[in-house]
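Section 3.1: Structural characterization of target chains.
Under the original work plan, the team committed to producing a structural model for every single-chain target entering the pipeline before any wet-lab resources were allocated. The record below documents one such target. The sequence was received from the expression subgroup and is listed exactly as submitted; it comprises 239 residues.
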Amino acid sequence: MSPRSASVNEELRRRSKERLLQAAVELVGEHGYDATTLGDIAERAGSARGLVSYYFPGKRQLVQSAVHRLMHRTLEEALEREPRTAEGRERMARAIDAVLGLARDRPVLMRQHMAGLLQADVGFVPCPEQRRLAELLRDTVARHGSRDVDRDYPVLRALLMGAVFAALVPGAPMPVPALRAELFGRYRLAWELGVPPDTEASGGTVCDTDLSRFFATGGSVRPARADPADGADRPAQSK
Protein backbone atom coordinates (compact mmCIF):
# COMPACT_ATOMS: atom_id res chain seq x y z
CA MET A 1 0.00 0.00 0.00
CA SER A 2 1.42 3.33 -1.01
CA PRO A 3 1.78 5.93 1.77
CA ARG A 4 -0.85 8.64 2.05
CA SER A 5 0.01 12.03 0.61
CA ALA A 6 0.69 15.03 2.84
CA SER A 7 -2.60 16.62 1.76
CA VAL A 8 -4.58 13.50 2.72
CA ASN A 9 -2.89 13.36 6.13
CA GLU A 10 -3.61 17.03 6.68
CA GLU A 11 -7.29 16.49 5.88
CA LEU A 12 -7.44 13.54 8.29
CA ARG A 13 -5.87 15.66 11.03
CA ARG A 14 -8.36 18.45 10.40
CA ARG A 15 -11.29 16.06 10.58
CA SER A 16 -9.99 14.52 13.81
CA LYS A 17 -9.73 17.92 15.47
CA GLU A 18 -13.21 18.89 14.26
CA ARG A 19 -14.69 15.73 15.75
CA LEU A 20 -13.00 16.38 19.08
CA LEU A 21 -14.24 19.98 19.20
CA GLN A 22 -17.80 18.97 18.43
CA ALA A 23 -17.73 16.11 20.93
CA ALA A 24 -16.44 18.44 23.66
CA VAL A 25 -19.25 20.95 23.08
CA GLU A 26 -21.91 18.24 23.03
CA LEU A 27 -20.75 16.40 26.14
CA VAL A 28 -20.09 19.45 28.32
CA GLY A 29 -23.47 20.83 27.27
CA GLU A 30 -25.14 17.55 28.22
CA HIS A 31 -23.30 16.62 31.41
CA GLY A 32 -21.21 19.57 32.56
CA TYR A 33 -17.46 20.05 32.63
CA ASP A 34 -16.55 17.99 35.69
CA ALA A 35 -18.62 14.99 34.60
CA THR A 36 -16.98 14.95 31.15
CA THR A 37 -13.63 13.21 30.79
CA LEU A 38 -11.13 13.31 27.96
CA GLY A 39 -11.87 9.64 27.45
CA ASP A 40 -15.56 10.45 27.03
CA ILE A 41 -14.72 13.09 24.44
CA ALA A 42 -12.43 10.74 22.52
CA GLU A 43 -15.07 8.00 22.54
CA ARG A 44 -17.81 10.35 21.32
CA ALA A 45 -15.49 11.61 18.59
CA GLY A 46 -14.49 8.09 17.55
CA SER A 47 -10.83 8.92 18.11
CA ALA A 48 -7.99 7.36 20.05
CA ARG A 49 -7.60 8.78 23.55
CA GLY A 50 -4.02 9.80 22.88
CA LEU A 51 -5.07 12.11 20.07
CA VAL A 52 -6.75 14.48 22.51
CA SER A 53 -3.46 15.13 24.29
CA TYR A 54 -1.67 15.32 20.95
CA TYR A 55 -3.86 18.25 19.86
CA PHE A 56 -4.64 19.99 23.17
CA PRO A 57 -2.59 20.50 26.39
CA GLY A 58 -5.58 19.57 28.55
CA LYS A 59 -9.34 19.37 28.91
CA ARG A 60 -9.78 23.04 29.77
CA GLN A 61 -7.96 24.18 26.64
CA LEU A 62 -9.95 21.78 24.48
CA VAL A 63 -13.28 22.92 25.90
CA GLN A 64 -12.34 26.57 25.61
CA SER A 65 -11.39 26.12 21.94
CA ALA A 66 -14.59 24.17 21.31
CA VAL A 67 -16.81 26.86 22.85
CA HIS A 68 -14.97 29.61 20.98
CA ARG A 69 -15.63 27.65 17.78
CA LEU A 70 -19.33 27.47 18.61
CA MET A 71 -19.36 31.18 19.44
CA HIS A 72 -17.60 32.38 16.32
CA ARG A 73 -19.64 30.18 14.01
CA THR A 74 -22.90 31.19 15.72
CA LEU A 75 -21.91 34.83 15.39
CA GLU A 76 -20.83 34.37 11.77
CA GLU A 77 -24.13 32.69 10.93
CA ALA A 78 -26.09 35.50 12.57
CA LEU A 79 -24.16 38.24 10.79
CA GLU A 80 -24.41 36.64 7.36
CA ARG A 81 -27.97 35.32 7.40
CA GLU A 82 -30.47 36.61 4.88
CA PRO A 83 -31.23 39.36 4.29
CA ARG A 84 -27.51 40.06 4.33
CA THR A 85 -26.56 43.58 5.26
CA ALA A 86 -23.53 45.77 5.84
CA GLU A 87 -25.51 48.23 7.96
CA GLY A 88 -23.65 48.76 11.22
CA ARG A 89 -26.55 48.98 13.65
CA GLU A 90 -28.21 45.83 12.34
CA ARG A 91 -24.96 43.89 12.54
CA MET A 92 -24.31 45.07 16.09
CA ALA A 93 -27.83 44.00 17.05
CA ARG A 94 -27.30 40.58 15.48
CA ALA A 95 -24.00 40.16 17.31
CA ILE A 96 -25.55 40.99 20.69
CA ASP A 97 -28.49 38.68 20.06
CA ALA A 98 -26.21 35.83 18.95
CA VAL A 99 -24.12 35.93 22.14
CA LEU A 100 -27.10 36.39 24.45
CA GLY A 101 -28.83 33.57 22.58
CA LEU A 102 -26.01 31.20 23.51
CA ALA A 103 -26.44 32.10 27.18
CA ARG A 104 -30.17 31.53 26.92
CA ASP A 105 -30.12 28.33 24.87
CA ARG A 106 -26.95 26.61 26.14
CA PRO A 107 -26.70 27.64 29.80
CA VAL A 108 -24.72 24.62 31.03
CA LEU A 109 -22.08 24.96 28.33
CA MET A 110 -21.72 28.74 28.64
CA ARG A 111 -21.67 28.65 32.46
CA GLN A 112 -18.84 26.12 32.35
CA HIS A 113 -17.01 28.26 29.80
CA MET A 114 -17.23 31.39 31.91
CA ALA A 115 -16.08 29.47 35.00
CA GLY A 116 -13.11 28.13 33.05
CA LEU A 117 -11.98 31.60 32.04
CA LEU A 118 -11.71 32.47 35.74
CA GLN A 119 -9.48 29.50 36.56
CA ALA A 120 -6.06 30.85 37.49
CA ASP A 121 -4.20 27.76 36.27
CA VAL A 122 -5.48 28.20 32.69
CA GLY A 123 -7.43 31.45 32.36
CA PHE A 124 -7.99 32.96 28.93
CA VAL A 125 -6.15 30.97 26.25
CA PRO A 126 -5.77 32.60 22.82
CA CYS A 127 -6.38 30.06 20.06
CA PRO A 128 -7.37 30.11 16.37
CA GLU A 129 -11.05 29.81 17.30
CA GLN A 130 -10.85 32.78 19.68
CA ARG A 131 -9.00 34.85 17.09
CA ARG A 132 -11.77 34.25 14.55
CA LEU A 133 -14.34 35.33 17.12
CA ALA A 134 -12.31 38.47 17.84
CA GLU A 135 -12.07 39.30 14.14
CA LEU A 136 -15.85 39.15 13.75
CA LEU A 137 -16.46 41.34 16.79
CA ARG A 138 -13.81 43.84 15.72
CA ASP A 139 -15.42 44.06 12.28
CA THR A 140 -18.81 44.58 13.93
CA VAL A 141 -17.41 47.43 16.02
CA ALA A 142 -15.84 49.01 12.93
CA ARG A 143 -19.04 48.76 10.88
CA HIS A 144 -20.97 50.29 13.74
CA GLY A 145 -18.91 53.43 13.28
CA SER A 146 -16.08 53.16 15.81
CA ARG A 147 -13.24 55.62 15.32
CA ASP A 148 -10.96 53.58 17.56
CA VAL A 149 -11.56 49.85 17.18
CA ASP A 150 -8.61 48.95 19.42
CA ARG A 151 -10.35 50.79 22.26
CA ASP A 152 -13.96 49.90 21.51
CA TYR A 153 -13.59 46.21 20.72
CA PRO A 154 -12.39 45.24 24.23
CA VAL A 155 -15.29 47.24 25.68
CA LEU A 156 -17.83 45.32 23.57
CA ARG A 157 -16.19 42.02 24.50
CA ALA A 158 -16.30 42.91 28.19
CA LEU A 159 -19.95 43.99 27.98
CA LEU A 160 -20.95 40.76 26.25
CA MET A 161 -19.03 38.63 28.74
CA GLY A 162 -20.61 40.55 31.61
CA ALA A 163 -24.07 40.06 30.15
CA VAL A 164 -23.52 36.31 29.72
CA PHE A 165 -22.26 36.06 33.30
CA ALA A 166 -25.26 38.03 34.60
CA ALA A 167 -27.67 35.78 32.69
CA LEU A 168 -26.14 32.64 34.18
CA VAL A 169 -25.52 33.49 37.84
CA PRO A 170 -27.07 30.60 39.79
CA GLY A 171 -29.89 31.81 42.00
CA ALA A 172 -29.91 35.37 40.71
CA PRO A 173 -29.91 35.39 36.90
CA MET A 174 -30.92 38.52 35.03
CA PRO A 175 -33.51 38.04 32.26
CA VAL A 176 -32.00 38.07 28.79
CA PRO A 177 -34.50 40.68 27.50
CA ALA A 178 -33.39 43.07 30.29
CA LEU A 179 -29.73 42.55 29.40
CA ARG A 180 -30.57 43.04 25.74
CA ALA A 181 -32.30 46.32 26.54
CA GLU A 182 -29.22 47.57 28.40
CA LEU A 183 -26.86 46.67 25.58
CA PHE A 184 -29.17 48.04 22.91
CA GLY A 185 -29.41 51.28 24.86
CA ARG A 186 -25.62 51.43 25.18
CA TYR A 187 -25.22 51.16 21.41
CA ARG A 188 -28.36 53.15 20.52
CA LEU A 189 -30.06 50.30 18.71
CA ALA A 190 -33.77 50.10 17.94
CA TRP A 191 -35.47 47.17 19.68
CA GLU A 192 -36.77 45.70 16.42
CA LEU A 193 -33.24 45.21 15.03
CA GLY A 194 -31.56 41.81 15.19
CA VAL A 195 -33.78 39.03 16.54
CA PRO A 196 -36.06 40.46 19.25
CA PRO A 197 -37.12 38.03 22.00
CA ASP A 198 -39.79 35.50 21.04
CA THR A 199 -39.15 35.89 17.31
CA GLU A 200 -37.51 33.59 14.83
CA ALA A 201 -34.49 34.38 12.72
CA SER A 202 -34.90 34.19 8.96
CA GLY A 203 -34.09 30.68 7.75
CA GLY A 204 -34.49 28.88 11.05
CA THR A 205 -35.03 28.99 14.77
CA VAL A 206 -32.69 30.79 17.10
CA CYS A 207 -31.94 27.52 18.93
CA ASP A 208 -30.88 24.35 17.12
CA THR A 209 -29.79 21.24 18.99
CA ASP A 210 -27.87 19.94 15.94
CA LEU A 211 -24.42 21.55 16.05
CA SER A 212 -22.91 19.59 13.17
CA ARG A 213 -23.09 22.54 10.77
CA PHE A 214 -20.56 24.36 12.96
CA PHE A 215 -18.05 21.53 12.76
CA ALA A 216 -16.88 20.22 9.38
CA THR A 217 -17.24 16.56 10.32
CA GLY A 218 -19.82 15.62 7.72
CA GLY A 219 -22.54 15.03 10.28
CA SER A 220 -23.32 14.73 13.95
CA VAL A 221 -20.68 13.05 16.09
CA ARG A 222 -21.71 9.60 17.31
CA PRO A 223 -19.97 7.15 19.62
CA ALA A 224 -17.74 4.99 17.46
CA ARG A 225 -14.57 2.99 17.36
CA ALA A 226 -11.38 4.89 16.91
CA ASP A 227 -10.89 5.81 13.29
CA PRO A 228 -7.93 3.87 11.82
CA ALA A 229 -7.17 6.95 9.75
CA ASP A 230 -6.33 8.79 12.96
CA GLY A 231 -2.96 7.14 12.79
CA ALA A 232 -2.04 9.97 10.45
CA ASP A 233 -2.15 12.30 13.47
CA ARG A 234 0.26 10.42 15.65
CA PRO A 235 3.93 11.42 15.82
CA ALA A 236 6.23 8.91 14.20
CA GLN A 237 7.48 6.28 16.67
CA SER A 238 11.15 5.47 16.80
CA LYS A 239 12.02 1.84 16.05
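The chain is about 60% helix and 0% strand.
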